[in-house]
Amino acid sequence: MSVSAHAPVPPHAPAPAPAPAPAPAAHSRPAPDAGPESGLDSGPGAAARPRGGGPTAAELLDFARRTASDPDVVDRLPLDPEGRTWIRLDGPGGSEAWLIGWPPGTGTGWHDHAESRGAFATARGRLVEHSLAVRLPSEGWHRLELAPGHDRSRAVQAGTGRAFGEHHVHEVLNASDREHAVSVHAYYPPLPQIRRYSRNGLVLTLEHVERPADWQ
Ligand SMILES: [Fe+2]
C-alpha cells in the first residue's frame, strides 16, 4: 500500500491545485449536467459494454460507490491538512483505482483520461466537477477555443458518484474552505496517459502529457 502526501502524484489529483479557471468555467457555477441522477453520463462509452472488454463505466461507478461507503477502506487514508494523500486500490476487472484525500481548496486542474473511461464517488465532504459536454479532438492541436455553452458543473456529495466515457475532459476540486473531502476513483483501461490543460475563458491550452511513470 502506498500512502503519501509528497510522493509522485496520483493521476486524479495533481499538485498543486491550479488557479481557478475564469468564467465560464469558474468553480461556483452549479448547473445540471446532461447525465441522469445516477451520475452515469449519457455520452458514448459510459454505459455500453466496451468492445475491448473490461468493466463498463457503470461498473466502475458501482465499485467507486461501494468502496466510498466502506469505512474499513476509507478510514485507512491518513488525511493531511497541507496536502493530498492517497492509496492505490485494486479496482475491478484490472481497472486502476485510487482513494484520494483532498484538503480544502485543492483540485486537479483541467485534464482528460485519453481512451480510459472512469468513475468517481465521494466518500466524505463534497467535490465539484467542471466538465465539457463536447468531445474534443484528441490530437493535433495545442490551443483550442471552445464555443460557448459546453461547460457543465455538478456537485458530487458524499454518497454520490459520477461516471464518464473516454476522452472526458474535466476538473475536480474540493471547493470547501474548511472541510476535507475523500473520494474513490476508478479507470479502465488503466490510464495510459493524462493530458493536462490550462484554461483561460473559452481557450483551452494543452500544457503537458503525463504518463504512468509520472504517478507510479
Ligand atoms: Fe479526472
TrEMBL record:
Gene Ontology MF, one: dioxygenase activity
Keyword Oxidoreductase: yes
The UniProt record lists the keyword Ion transport: no
Region feature Disordered, mapped onto this chain: 1-57
Bias type Pro residues, positions: 8-23
Top-level taxon in the UniProt lineage: Bacteria
Record key words, sorted: Dioxygenase, Iron, Metal-binding, Oxidoreductase
Family, per entry: Belongs to the cysteine dioxygenase family.
Protein name: Cysteine dioxygenase
Species: Streptomyces antimicrobicus
Classification lineage: Bacteria, Bacillati, Actinomycetota, Actinomycetes, Kitasatosporales
